[in-house]
Design brief:
Largest sheet: 6 strands, parallel
Shape: globular
CATH architecture: 3-Layer(aba) Sandwich
Pfam family, one: Isochorismatase
Keywords: Hydrolase
Mean pLDDT: 93
GO molecular function: hydrolase activity
Protein name: Cysteine hydrolase
InterPro entries: Isochorismatase-like_dom (IPR000868), Isochorismatase-like_hydrls (IPR050272), Isochorismatase-like_sf (IPR036380)
Strand order of the largest sheet: 3-2-1-4-5-6
């Protein structure tokens, strides 16, 4: 899939092992599915970013507080059902899947290479968690001079107040922050 629009939607960390902690009892997945459908309808490439490690977790440092607890757990390695993208928002043929090894979508992945190859200069961010992958990716993407949009209701965090502060006070310093509906209306 080419990036003829110069824009790509990043759907980040919406994997079964993550959604079970965050999205149960919410309308998050249907909202996100709607945003993905809008992107596809407008020819905007959808890039899925997933967290994944090698068998035995040799790529997880004991000093990494976020991931060290996973070492030896069998989580987010090949064959782990929890590593799969949630079926409600699953990739379609032609979508790109990028595996990252840290919090930011760029850390330990070939995302930058993929985006440059597709001639993408603007990123639309959605994912779980607002205070994790979305925040880290936004900061790194801004430093890499990407234009940025954050779909506020396409992000989810365990802490509603953290989500609110990030989407209303922090992210607007580096990105346009809109709801999925507002983004759809901008594309119309």
């Amino acid at each position: 899939m080419t990036g003829s629009t110069g824009t790509a939607l990043l759907v980040m960390d919406v994997q079964l092992g993550i959604t079970q902690r965050f999205a149960e009892g919410t309308d998050y997945l249907p909202r996100l599915a709607g945003t993905i459908d809008v992107a596809r309808a407008h020819g905007i490439p959808v890039v899925y970013v997933v967290i994944g490690f090698r068998e035995g977790h040799p790529d997880v440092s004991r000093s990494n507080k976020s991931f060290a607890v996973m070492a030896g757990s069998g989580r987010f390695i090949p064959g782990d059902p929890g590593a799969q993208v949630h079926p409600d928002v699953a990739p379609h043929d032609g979508d790109v899947i990028v595996t990252k090894r840290r919090v930011s979508a760029f850390a330990g992945s070939d995302l930058d290479l993929v985006l440059r190859s597709m001639e993408i200069r603007h990123l639309v961010l959605a994912g779980i968690a607002t205070s994790g992958v979305v925040l880290s990716t936004l900061r790194q993407a801004a430093d890499l001079d990407f234009g940025l949009t954050v779909i506020s209701d396409g992000c989810l965090d365990l802490d509603d107040e953290v989500h609110r502060v990030l989407t209303q006070k922090v992210f607007p310093r580096q990105a346009q922050v809109v709801t999925g509906r507002e983004w759809r209306d901008q594309l119309a």
